[in-house]
Write a structure and sequence with these properties.
2 copies of one chain form a homodimer. With 210 residues, chain A is mainly α. Chain A is built from 9 helices and no strands. The longest helix of chain A has 27 residues. Chain A binds a DNA duplex (30 and 30 nucleotides) through helix 1 and helix 3.
Chain lengths: 210, 210
Amino acid sequence: MSTRAAPPEAPSTRKGRATRERIVGAAADLMYRHGVAGTSTPAVRDAAGVSSSQIYHYFADKDDLTRAVIAFQSETILSNQAPLLATLDSVEALRSWRDVVVDAARRQNGAGGCPLGSLSSELSDDHRWARDALAASFTAWSEAIRAGLAAMVDNGTLRPETDATMLSRALLAAVQGGLVLAQAQHTTDALEAGLDALIAHIHDHAVVPG
Amino acid sequence: MSTRAAPPEAPSTRKGRATRERIVGAAADLMYRHGVAGTSTPAVRDAAGVSSSQIYHYFADKDDLTRAVIAFQSETILSNQAPLLATLDSVEALRSWRDVVVDAARRQNGAGGCPLGSLSSELSDDHRWARDALAASFTAWSEAIRAGLAAMVDNGTLRPETDATMLSRALLAAVQGGLVLAQAQHTTDALEAGLDALIAHIHDHAVVPG
DNA sequence: GTAGGATTGGATAGTCAAGTCCAGTCTGGG
DNA sequence: CCCAGACTGGACTTGACTATCCAATCCTAC
């Protein structure tokens, strides 16, 4: 219930911007590995190499810092995914997108899950502001997939009646669920199964050449 | 690092068993709604109508209580799912399983997500004991789905070469991912899209009658 | 009914995190 | 160079949570 206004997102000096970024980066890393509740501001302070007052100089409170972390992770993921999804022009390209996702999960044995998915699972129920931001990110992600599939319809790879919206939702659900299961099982089996089954289904809808 | 041994799971008196169950039930409910870290032992004490010492009489510490909650939720979910999955004998039966899952999510607007998925997302990275228990539950769940699909192969509904193992993993991933997205988006769109796409894919593999 | 273990109540120690305060240092425009 | 405002360091307050302790009460087997 603090009435203190949130500090501006971009500090006016170069040094200030660097400090703010260091704090967000350290917090994002810790929150990814240990959750928001499992990340104390003292831990962020040490990891970022700053002092307590810096954190509260740049952020109104821990919720405000968490907000910045959500924005940071959304930006990171979407900017990583966008180039891959913007060039979907064949089932082959879809498969290589799948490989990137699977490889990323495999590289860390499934640990961590999806940065957005983990944040959502922890925060969505109790914090409206977090849920809204995360829902928007998921929608943007799903929309990027949809646009990629739509391009495949446009270029004649997929039949015109393909429901790109539904398939993009299904693919994102498979990614999220596959990552949740990978986290517990330390295997990408479910992630691969989900994506492969859906891609096979999409392939069945491909326009048969000739 | 306490050296105190965990108390036995079943207290020797009727009253003791009832108290223990009340504590686990209250803790499961609170942890489902607010996460494990978001659930304090005082909150469990009040919700269960017991006093602090009861909790530590029946459980070695909060981790031990969390362990009991994981077991409770696994048991609850698997015993709810088992009857539906044991009778999968047609694509129609698969669709009604889908409806049960979707309706359950819709009834609470996606809030909460999957009790096991939420626990896993919060605990798997940091607590080996939790991850192992949750991985086992997910495996059992997936196996129940696989057995249902295998029955459909056996009775001739699905073609013999159907990969029931892979499809069961894909279905579970769709459920988990769909619930994660439902939690943020307050919509079962992704859950429905994932399950419907997979069921359509399975339907494509059904033995064509006649 | 009664002894002895099982169960219960509530106070409390010890720990740690969130957020505040203020004095001191840096930075950049004039 | 100089000053106003931006930035930094670290001690400190407050409050909550985990876990313990021990005396009192309740069961149940005998």
